[in-house]
Amino acid sequence: MADIRQVQAGTQTIAVRKDLRVPMRDGVTLAADVYSGVEDRPRPALVALSPYGKELQALALTMPPQRRPSPMWDGCIEAGDVARVVQEDYAHVIGDLRGSGASDGEHVGNYNAGGVPLGQDAYDVIEWVAEQPWCDGNVGMIGISYFGSMQVLAAAERPPSLKAIFVSGGHFDFYETTYHGGIMWLMPRAAREGRGGDSGWAFTDRITSRMLETYSAEEVRKRVAERLQDPDVAAWPNLVHVLHYPKHHEAWFDIVLNELDGEWYEERNPINLARNIDIPVYLQIDQGRGWTVDGHVELFEALTGPKKLVIGSYPPMQSRPWVEEHDEMFRWYEYWLKGVDNGVMDEPAVSVFVEGSRDVVTAGQWPPKDVEYRSLYLRPRGKLSPEPELMGPEHAAPDGWYQAPLTVTDKVEILSWSTPPFEQPTELIGTGAAHLFAEIDQPDTNFILRLWDVAPGGGRQLITSGYLKASHRELDERTTEGNPHHPHTRAVPVEPGVIEEYVLRLYPFAATFRPGHRLVVELSNDEPLADEHNALLPPDAFHLPVGRPVTHKIYRDALHPSRLVLPFTTVEAVQPQ
């Protein structure tokens, strides 16, 4: 018999079952806490699973929600508002994944526990929960980010008692989560090790490296030496340290050693597993971190059962403890777990908040409106125009910049181009592309492009972004107009001094540029660590800087039509200059 205690959350009394042992099919037991009302009766259950530690999630009972840039914001308190879950008459089950927190077993690598898929463990937890006397047999899941990804892994295993999931802010294609356009994103290390506003994983001595478990010591030494040949990696002290001393950095060590997409990522890719999901799935994501919006759209399109996609408003980071979206989540679960016909399934499958106009557009598919792709060309004197340049390169000299490594400067050089002020509201919804004809004097660099909505008074908001490591410029067969894709399965060094066309994917977005506003595009090979947008992100949410000095020339002439390809939904576009 589990020890049941009671705690107070405001005026509410909550029953807590602490440190329950949940048996897995291979004999390992996981630890879980259960929060519910004090009445001794069965009720539906919402399961939250992660390696972040169930004790950390309990802070939702005592800590008011914090928003960025509060220093008290902790990115790992993501299992939801415990008191609200109990108030809505669910049992809230918060468990530690194997090898983390109070659970047994080993955690090897990412989203895989050394031959035991984490989805398999989630299956066993869900079916165990459904059999408990305090559960009525109906189970859903709860939590954002890592918790959200766990929901997809669980649903793909098809546990019979899992009736629906509600996923917010998850990370899906695992390569695209860690390398944006082939450029390493440093935030996954923060989430795993506890840096820059994250507590990180509840580490134990049973979290080990998949690479160290799989390869011989000689092979690992060889791969480490090869990785250190990358000047970007060699110039970043934290990565040098991780590669030489992987102990206690095992999960991040694995990511650093796998800079190309392939089998190592694909076997953990929730997008591939999503085709096995047949239960209802609700996907929610806010604008501002384009790669997560992209992942939610990709997952939505891969699902074949009942599904919804809701893209919310900027800013990009939800509060911690996570409390947003609870109203909609409980409507979803009231329908699927409690059998209340509240009309949620009568509403359109896709709902998109449009920045600028603040309209909400609904439809049965993504994008929610018909799109016409139109080009805005980079022109001399920092201008963007719907009309292409007529002069050749001998007259329309390229724009350019030199970027020294951030080891010797703290200044990030940025080129920008702007439309004239819009004369009427102009709406864009969908993905986009940036075609850049560029010459560099090194074998590699980064291209980081960001689109801003700039108001007449100078205030601005990020609309979308695109990233591409130059050596990852190859496109694959999925590419269509305004919707490029890169395989990222090999790196092809650039021949210095040769003009190449680089096509950046612009992540999905929805924005209306109001009269008087301008669209401004900024291009750099590193990114500023603090600006209007980055101040809203955790401190480690930036990309690995380029470790060598690079001179860039951006050609935008009649022979080299550098341009943006954007998804216009309105008839009128930007007025010609």
TrEMBL record:
Residues 330-565 form the Xaa-Pro dipeptidyl-peptidase C-terminal domain. InterPro entries: AB_hydrolase_fold, CocE/Ser_esterase, Galactose-bd-like_sf, Xaa-Pro-like_dom, Xaa-Pro_dipept_C, Xaa-Pro_dipeptidyl-ppase/CocE. GO terms for molecular function: dipeptidyl-peptidase activity. Keywords: Hydrolase. The keyword Hydrolase applies. It comes from the Bacteria. PANTHER family: COCE_NOND FAMILY, PUTATIVE (AFU_ORTHOLOGUE AFUA_7G00600)-RELATED, PEPTIDASE S9 PROLYL OLIGOPEPTIDASE. This is Xaa-Pro dipeptidyl-peptidase C-terminal domain-containing protein.
